[in-house]
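Quick review question:
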């Protein structure tokens, strides 16, 4: 990675593992959003994913503290690792809230919002797979970042529409409170994807 030794290449492997966890977490969340209700096992599985993500993030931080020469600036590695971890945290938190609040089947709009997040994580995986050859893959990385921006913009619009729909058609104020918080959690997950896009663009410009 970046022309450094195999020791430093370990960062690339850890980032790959991190993005794989992000991807499988969002795919599972998308499946859960199709269900009539959330089970304790659904929440437990998401918690296991969150624990896996934390473990990889901790490994990145440990290596960061023990490696003299790093393939990226330490600050960039730190931020990328933390925001990837945040995506999993918020996805897990979404399911946790759905279980605690005993919600029914999500609306089509909520399902579509999660679908947008899942598409964004696909772009994240694609971009991170190119970091090891950043000089020749910058176009692919930047294209992935732009697609994430597009998905986040669509998500913002959909989020506002869903909140408006809640207030217009839902008569139970408790249900409004529940789903507004859950929608905010999903939308924040997508915001973290946008933060990854920002960081990726910064890295490309810095190391090109």
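Suggested answer, residue by residue:
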């Amino acid at each position: 990675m970046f022309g450094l030794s195999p020791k430093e290449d370990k960062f690339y492997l850890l980032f790959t593992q991190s993005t794989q966890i992000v991807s499988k977490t969002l795919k599972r969340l998308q499946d859960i959003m199709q269900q009539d209700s959330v089970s304790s096992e659904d929440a437990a599985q998401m918690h296991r994913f969150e624990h896996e993500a934390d473990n990889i993030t901790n490994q990145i931080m440990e290596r960061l503290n023990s490696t003299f020469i790093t393939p990226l600036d330490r600050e960039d590695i730190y931020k990328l690792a933390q925001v990837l971890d945040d995506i999993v945290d918020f996805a897990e938190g979404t399911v946790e809230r759905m279980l605690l609040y005993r919600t029914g089947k999500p609306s089509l709009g909520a399902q579509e919002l999660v679908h947008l997040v899942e598409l964004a994580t696909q772009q994240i995986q694609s971009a991170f797979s190119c970091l090891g050859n950043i000089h020749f893959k910058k176009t692919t990385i930047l294209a992935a970042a732009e697609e994430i921006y597009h998905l986040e913009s669509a998500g913002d619009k959909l989020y506002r529409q869903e909140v408006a729909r809640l207030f217009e058609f839902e008569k139970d104020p408790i249900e409004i409170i529940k789903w507004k918080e859950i929608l905010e959690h999903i939308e924040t997950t997508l915001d973290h994807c946008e933060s990854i896009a920002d960081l990726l663009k910064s890295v490309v410009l810095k190391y090109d």
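Why it works: The chain has six helices and no strands. The first helix runs from residue 6 to 32.
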